[in-house]
Prior knowledge:
Helices cover about 15% and strands about 30% of the residues. The protein is built from three helices and ten strands, in the order βββββββαββαβα. By secondary structure, the protein is an alpha/beta fold.
Amino acid sequence: SNKSFSIMPLGYLREPIFNLNRAEFIYTTKGPEIHSLLKNYNTKYIQSNFQIVKYNKNGVIEKQSEIYKSKTQRLVAFSGIANPEHFFKILNKLGVEVDEKIIFNNHHTYKLDGSDLKQSDNIIYITTYKDYVKLKELKIEIYILEMNFILNDSELLKTIREKINEN
Length: 167
C-alpha cells in the first residue's frame, strides 16, 4: 500500500508515529504547544534549561561561563542539526549576540582540514553539544549550548521501578 507515515522524532532512522501507541510516556521539549502529529496522544511537556559552557582545546570543561571576546574577535554560531532555528532562538533568548550564523546540513560530517570551520584567534565558535561531539579532534576552544532536562514526574519513576522489578 502507499500509506504514508511520519517518524518521531521527525528525521531519518526513526519509528513510524503509530508506534507511539505502545509508549507509556511521551514528552515534548520544544515548548508546551503540542506538535499536530501528537494531538491524539497523551503528551507531557518536559521543561529544560540551557547553559553555555566552554570546552578547552583538550575537550575539558574549563568553566561555565559567559562568552568573553575581544573587540577583534567575532562570535560565530554554527549548527548541523535538523532544526537549527531553535538553536539560534535559544541563543537569542539567552542574550547571546552572534556576528555570523552558519547552518550545515543535518548530520553533517565536519572536515578537520579547516574548510568547514576556520581555526583563527579572531573567531570564537558556539554550537550544540550534538555538533561538538563530532568536532573533538579539531582542538579548538569552543562554547557549547547545553540543554538540561528537568524531569520531575513521580508516575514515570514509579513505572520505571515497576518495570525493573518485573525483570
